[in-house]
Write a structure and sequence with these properties.
alpha/beta; four-stranded parallel beta sheet; 11 strands; binds zinc ion
């Protein structure tokens, strides 16, 4: 029996047993049961190509972050009602506070967990987001989650441990490398010293070279990112800095993106005059919306982009889809993210099934796997396979799409695929 027959039969059995359509309607809730199946084991062992769409700030192991935080003598937690400054269940290393002085209202994390063992689960819950959180305020709630761990993850020794594990886990999952969206972070030493973006890059490079001792091919690219919804003139200095980073670290910085909710009142046409002369490649989140009038994909194409983050609403504009196909623009599709941010309530009706079948250049990605409590890529690939009636040849093509232009990684992938299917 070949791989298509084996996985096809397993899929049929899984879907037949899923009488309440949980897999389509709330994939993450179906995951614990799916993880016990033979199909999951096959998807876990499958070679993965590169992960093309992943935000560094939301791509770590939350359980591991909590264990590092609890083990550290200098980590505090905010358990009061939210203030304009602090989030409920926000974590922070002492070095993050001005002059190392912990403000009123913050409690020593380890002591707080010792006094209330359920607190660990509560912090975990507040750092993740499921389908039950979807409402009209999903984006502010989603963005608030990032605040809960930024003041601990960016403490340099914790950052180094956390992201060494991220990259090692990615490689162990079969991922050959990753393109990470990165929004400037205040990385700091435990004594409070603030480090620069350049320091951040050098720390990251140090982590990657350590990972390369085990996985020599594993490479990390950075897409320098900023927010949508801001005044256009504030984008210019960020673009300049992106250019500086690209010139200084050409082996790592590959482009510029603007992230965040697209229904923010400012479409890409508003930013186009600034982005048009960027002289740094633009790789743009676009079409992540349910607004039938949102033509951000078209505006992004007008900027000459080669890659689209999501491209979810492309199906609404057949003329634009023709342009995407003709220019072989890559769609970085993120199925579970689209479900958990409310764009695809029924994964079976996700438009990317059609994009793949119509021969578009699709890759499958996880977006913010820490917050969605999912694997780096396995779970999204499995969601696509189970919900979109794809063949394993379709899955393989999506993985190959992530390696375009890299002949040696493509050769490695083909060797891996051969061993996988033998
Ligand atoms: Zn994204």
């Amino acid at each position: 029996m070949d791989i298509e027959q084996i996985t096809g039969r397993m899929r049929q059995e899984i879907l037949q047993a899923d009488r309440e359509n949980l897999i389509s309607n709330d994939f993450v809730k179906a995951l614990p049961a799916l993880r016990t199946t033979g199909l999951y084991r096959i998807f876990k062992a499958m070679p993965k190509g590169r992960l093309m769409h992943c935000h560094i700030e939301a791509s770590f192991d939350v359980h591991y972050m909590l264990s590092l935080a609890i083990a550290c003598d200098d980590v505090y937690v905010f358990l009061q009602n939210e203030t304009p400054e602090y989030r409920y269940c926000q974590l922070a290393h002492r070095g993050w506070f001005e002059d190392g002085v912990v403000p009123a209202g913050w409690e020593h994390l380890r002591c707080a967990v010792a006094a209330d063992p359920a607190l660990k689960d509560e912090i975990y819950r507040m750092c993740t987001s499921g389908k039950e959180n979807i409402d009209e305020d999903i984006w502010p709630k989603f963005e608030a989650i990032f605040d809960r761990f930024k003041a601990i993850n960016n403490c340099r020794p914790i950052f180094e441990k956390l992201y060494y594990k991220v990259f090692m886990d990615m490689a162990a999952e079969g991922i050959l490398g990753v393109d990470l969206r990165y929004i400037s972070q205040t990385i700091f030493e435990p004594d409070g010293r603030r480090l620069s973006d350049d320091d951040y890059v050098n720390i990251l490079k140090g982590i990657v070279s350590k990972v390369q001792q085990t996985y020599p091919y594993f490479h990390v690219n950075i897409i320098y990112s900023y927010y949508k919804g801001v005044p256009a003139e504030t984008v210019l200095p960020r673009l300049e800095y992106a250019r500086h980073l690209q010139q200084k670290y050409p082996d790592m910085f590959i482009g510029f993106d603007m992230v965040g909710g697209e229904d923010c009142g400012k479409d890409l046409a508003y930013y186009s005059p600034v982005l048009r002369d960027a002289s740094v490649p633009i790789i743009m989140h676009a079409g992540e919306t349910l607004d039938p009038d949102n033509r951000n994909i078209e505006h992004a194409l007008d900027l000459g982009i080669r890659r689209l983050g999501h491209g979810f609403n492309l199906y609404r504009f057949p003329d634009v889809e023709k342009r995407v196909k003709a220019a072989n623009v890559m769609l970085e599709v993120c199925p579970i993210s689209n479900q958990l941010l409310g764009y695809s309530p029924d994964l079976g009706r996700h438009p990317a099934a059609g994009y793949i079948k119509r021969g578009l250049n699709v890759t499958i990605n996880s977006d913010d796997c820490a917050i969605f409590d999912t694997a780096y890529i396995t779970d999204d690939l499995l969601a696509a396979y189970l919900c979109w009636d794809l063949s394993m040849a379709d899955i393989r093509r999506c993985l190959e799409n992530s390696l375009q232009g890299d002949a040696s990684l493509l050769d490695l992938f083909h060797d891996q695929w051969k061993s996988f299917t033998e």
